[in-house]
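tool=predict chain=A
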Amino acid sequence: MSTTITLTVDRHERDVLRHELGLLPGTFGDLAHGVELGKRYHDLVGRARDGLHLLDDLGWAHRDPRQSFDITLDRGRLAAWLAYQADQAEGCAADNAVTPEEIAHTAQKHVEHGERGPVAELAREMAESFSGAVDEALDLLSVARALSGRLAAS
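tool=predict ok
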């Protein structure tokens, strides 16, 4: 039995979700690779199907002038998709949360192994990259949790 609902999201929420869905073009290769790794085919296909549905709801273009967007995905599938995104975002934030000492050490190792440029410059680039990844992950985590709460309350 379908329990389709309509959940309206604002432009910021849409943009965060749409950014994550921008990774979808790799899905078909990911499906084949996931099956090879023993992941459940049904789960992978389901996530791809839900991603395509969400792209239909949120718009396929990276930029969309609308101020609000209606998500019409089945309640259970949307809850599962949001939970998966929150879990992935938590892992990404944790993986990219590094100390300045770790960055300096890694930059030094790269230079010692033949990368060009000053250690400080490489360390600064690495810090910006890690910081950006953490910011994006925390933004996704915040939106996924907020929408999960609104979904549960509806």
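The mean pLDDT is 83. Residues 110 and 131 are 19 Å apart (CA to CA).
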